Amino acid sequence: MGILFSLIGLAAWAFQAAQSPAPAVIQELTHASEVMRGTRSYRVFLPPAYAASQKRYPVIYWFHGYEPSNAQRDAEIASYVAAHDVIVADVGPVETTGPFPSYFPELANHIDKTLRTIPDRDHRGVTGFSMGGFMAYWIAGEYPDLVASASSFMGFTEASVGPPGFDLENRLDELYGNYDSERTRLVTGTRDFLQFYHRRLNGAWLYARSGHETESFDADHSAPGVAKTFDFHMHAFANPLPRPAMFGHADVYPNFAVWGWEVVSDRRQPGFTVLENVSGKGFRSAVREWAPGGATIPAVKLSIASAPVYAPASSHAVMYIRLRDGNVRRAVQKADAQGRLNFELDGDAYEVGVSAEPLLTVAGYEIADAAWATAGQPVKLRVKFWNKGQARSGTATIQWESPNPGVKFDVASSRLFGLGPGESAVLPVTVTVADEARAMVKILAVEGANRMPLEVPLFPPAEAVANFRIADGQTLEAYRHAVQHGEVTLGEGNGDGHAAPGESFAVLLPDGEFLRAAEVFTNDACVDSTERASDSWADYDHAGASAIYSLPSIRAECAPGHVVHMLARVTIPNPPNHQVRYRAIEFPVWWRRGEEPKKP
After folding, report:
1. Would you tell me which of 24, 59, 242, 530 could form a disulfide with 82, CB atoms 3.0–4.6 Å apart?
2. How far is 591 from 596, CA to CA, in rounded Å?
3. How would residue 4 be classed by pLDDT, with cut points 50, 70 and 90?
4. Considering the entire predicted model, what is its pTM?
5. Number of other residues whose CB lies within 10 A of the CB of residue 154
6. pLDDT at residue 599, as a whole number
7. Please, what is the average pLDDT of the chain?
8. Which fold has domain 20-238?
9. Would you list the DSSP string of 232-276?
10. Peptide bond into 68 cis (omega under 30)
């Protein structure tokens, strides 16, 4: 009988062993990195059949920071790889400054040369936890031509990245335009200290672009649901988003390449080179102090080489439209031997068209009858179209569409009469977004196959207040670093507490005993609101983030007495769920000192 039971037990063990997958193979490896100027270590998780087969595998790159090793997470990764045809490369520690942000192309090339990968973007994914999650997202935005999917486990959403000496805050919620060709996933936690920042990122990414998903877990700062997120990447490998027919990209580095286009500049200060609506038919370009809407830096010299999409040595009619004044320049340019066109520009904002035919584009909008766009209420837009082709356009029917839910237009279509080369026109359209909490709406102006995108920030209804301060060179007692306070001097002017032509200023709202500098928004033509600054909260909530405040200026030609309407936004510290306060304010443009009207 004992022998019988032993045989039965042995058979059960053998059956169980046959049903359990063989373990993943884990290897600790190194390579010599030119970018990092030294030897770099990394770990790979290989499928059990890797050594005995000739199969090629997709790769998920897992980025980690300086957090302690996590045996449970390593076991989850190994268990997944044991049951799926995928390689996981564990890389780190990541650093947002120095050379690490430029390391990924070299690393991916090394992995592809030394392991049996499927060496294309459609079969590369990036992920990571905490600061590793930030780096995974940042790499996906920097190299969309190398990565098809990106995920973040409760990752930071803001960090300083850039060349040594002029690195700059990279706020992922503002860089949504870099990710149109990628699938992305954000894992959040109900008890995570970063949840406020995750909601802000989702508020932009879920509506400004497609292909983004998010899932919340009942968890603190951790990486729950590894298998579910790896399933997301496996689905992305099987169903990659296609290479975009038209792309956008904002880059903190002066020189970069993306989708075969190469950009070189002489910028030697913090900023972003911003490319939009890029295709063989042209693009929009600017060098800005911050993305997407910062002040332009016209002094920068910008050289842009297209991807090799033209016939070698072919000639093309090119139109350059400087957007600030509508100045039009025409040229005939010849593609080089590789089929590239080279464009010489400065850092101002330009529309560039490469077409002998008519070529319509949307170059911006204004809000009519309001100073900002309020969610839940009709928003009257005046959308500006340019013809940046070399031939006159015919009368076109513009269809208004939105990929976002709960969006209604007052009309389904509008008629755009013909435009000559370099001419512009404005079409009015009213859009209403039902959700008062919506932070953005994406609009498409569609003319046949030409789908022209437009993103409009939205704000919740705001209470009008009279209790605020204007600092035009004044020194005031205000909050800094979230909860500290002290004297700060903001703005540049005569310090009389009013905003006069030619002065820059800050708007401050009361928060208890002290004041908070606000980020402001307005459609008023008298106000230049492209300048801003930030107050670091990194030592307060340890999220690596900052509170933005604006430093707008009154344009010199604005007449005293004109009433400015603004929306002021401040963040009130309350970790992990900071509160955002909106207030509607108004004030008259004041007189410069010595120019006040004389009393009768």
Report:
1. 24
2. 5
3. very low
4. 0.94
5. 25
6. 62
7. 94
8. Rossmann fold (3.40.50)
9. HHHHHHHSPPPPPSSEEEEESSSSEEETTEEEEE---SS-EEEEE
10. no
Q: 325 with 355: CB under 8 angstroms?
A: no
Cα radius of gyration rounded to whole Å, the chain: 27
Q: What is the largest CA-CA distance in the chain?
A: 120
Check pLDDT > 80 for residue 102. yes
The mean pLDDT value for 12-23 works out to 57
Question: Is pLDDT of 16 > 60?
Answer: no
Cα gap 250→176, rounded to integer Å = 9
Same fold, 20-238 and 362-457: no
Q: How would you classify the pairing of strands 506-511 and 514-517?
A: antiparallel
Does the pLDDT value for residue 27 go beyond 80? yes
**Which residue has tokens 């039965």?**
8
The secondary structure of residue 561, as a DSSP letter, is T
State how far Cα 422 lies from the chain centre: 30
CATH class, range 362-457: mainly beta
Check pLDDT > 70 for residue 328.
Answer: yes
For residue 533, CA distances in Å to 1, 96, 252, 256, 268 come to 83, 20, 17, 26, 19
Domain boundaries, the chain: 20-238, 247-354, 362-457, 463-588
Question: Contact, 382 vs 368, CB < 8 A?
Answer: yes
pLDDT of residue 12 exceeding 70 = no
The CA distance from 144 to 183, in Å, is 10
Backbone phi, then psi, for 357, in 5-degree steps?
A: -100, 175
Bond before 292 cis per omega within 30 degrees = yes
Give residue-wise pLDDT tens across range 77-87.
Answer: 999 999 999 99
Asked if the model's pLDDT at residue 2 lies above 80, the reply is: no
